[in-house]
Amino acid sequence: MKLKQHIFLIPVIAAVVSASGCSDNTIQTPLPDASSVITFGLPAVSVEAVGQPGIDKAPGRSTLLNAFPSGESFNVLGYCIPRNVSNTAEEDRSQASQNWKQKAQFSCADVFYNTTVTVNGSQATYSGNLKPWYTTTEPSNDAANFLYSFMAYYPVGNFTVAPDNASTVGVPVITFTIPAEAYNDHTRIPDAMIAANFNHCQADGKVDMTFRHLLTGFRFRINNYDTDPLRIESLRLTGRFYRSSNFSFPTEAVTQTTPELASNQYNGNFSFVSAADNFEVAGGSAKLLGTAADGTDGTTLLLLTNPAATPETVDNGTDYFIGADKKLVINYSIGNSGTISMEIPFRLTYKTTPAHRYTANLNFVGDKFVLIFMADNNENWESGSDNDITIN
Length: 392
Description:
Blueprint: H1 2-20, E1 44-45, E2 73-79, H2 100-103, E3 112-120, E4 123-126, E5 148-154, E6 159-162, E7 173-177, E8 193-200, E9 210-213, E10 216-224, E11 230-242, E12 244-248, E13 255-257, E14 265-273, E15 279-281, E16 286-288, E17 301-303, E18 323-334, E19 340-345, E20 357-365, E21 368-375
Parallel strand pairs: 1-9, 10-20
Antiparallel strand pairs: 2-3, 2-5, 3-4, 5-8, 6-7, 7-12, 8-9, 10-16, 10-17, 11-14, 11-15, 11-18, 12-13, 18-19, 20-21
C-alpha cells in the first residue's frame, strides 16, 4: 500500500513543478494566457497625437492621450448571465448567449465589478484570482456560446458607477465628474475616456478594449493683423461649465446625457497667459498658445458637452453646448500703447462634439479682437468609429 501511494504522488509533484517552475507543491495561479480564464489585451486609444501624429513622448498635463499610459489603471465592469425576468434573484443561463441589448436590463455585474486593470509594459493584469470563463453545467446551455460584455473607464478616480454594487440588476451608468481642483486650473482636467467590448465569447480570446475620449478640446491662437507688435499680457476664460455627464449602455452603443446646467455646473476661471508669461506677437504673424519648441501643443482646454444642445438653442434657455456666461478676458498692448483690457463673449455657433478639437482664433484687426472658431477637421482626436464602441 505504501508503494502504491508513493507511485501515485510522483507524477502529481512533477506536474506541479513543471507548470509552476517552483520546487514545492503549491498550485500556482494560471498563466495570463490560459484559455480557461479571462485576460485583457493591451488597451488601445483611438486617436492621433495632437498636432504631431506619431510623436513618441509621454503625455503631460493638457496633452491628449494617443496611447494608454503604461503604469496606470482602468476599472472594468463585466457581464454575462442575466437574471430571471420573473425572479431577479436567480440566474437564467438559457439567456446567456443573447446579445447585450437583449439582456442588458436584466443583467448584473456577475463577471467584474469595478475591477482594476493595470497596464505595465506588455501586460494588462488585474489583482486577485484570475476570473474563469463560465463552464457548461447542462447540455442545453453550452457555455462556449455565452456572450460577455465589458465596459471600462479611465482615469479611475473621476468616475462613479450605478448600480453601486455587483448584485443589483440594471443597465450600467458611468458618470464622469470634473474634479474640483480643476475649476481654476485647466491642466487638472483629465483626458477622460471610456471603452466597451460587447458580445465577446470565450473563443475570441483576450478581451481588447479601445478607449475613446469623452471631452471636447479647445485651443487658442493669436493672429496679429496689425503692423505693430502685439503684446499679450494676460488671457483667461471664465464662465459656468458642465460639471458631470452620464454614459449609459442600454444597447451596443454608449448614450451620453448631460444634466441641465442649473443643477450641474461649476464656475471655471482658466488662465492661459499670466502676467509672468506675457509674450509678443509680431505684426502680420500668429502664435498658438502653449506651442513648445518641439512643435507640440501645450494648451488644450477640455470641457464636457451637452449632446441635447442644438445651434437653435445654444446660449438660450438651458441648452448650452459647453456652458453659459462664457467670456475671454484679455489684457494687451499694441505698439507703444499702455495696457488695454477687453472682454470677448465666448459663444459657439455650431454643435461641439466629444473627441474633437476646435481652435479659437483671436484675430486682432484694427484696434480690436474678433473671435472666430475653427473646427480642426483634419486633427480630430478620432477618425471614425470601430466595432467596439460608438458614442451617440
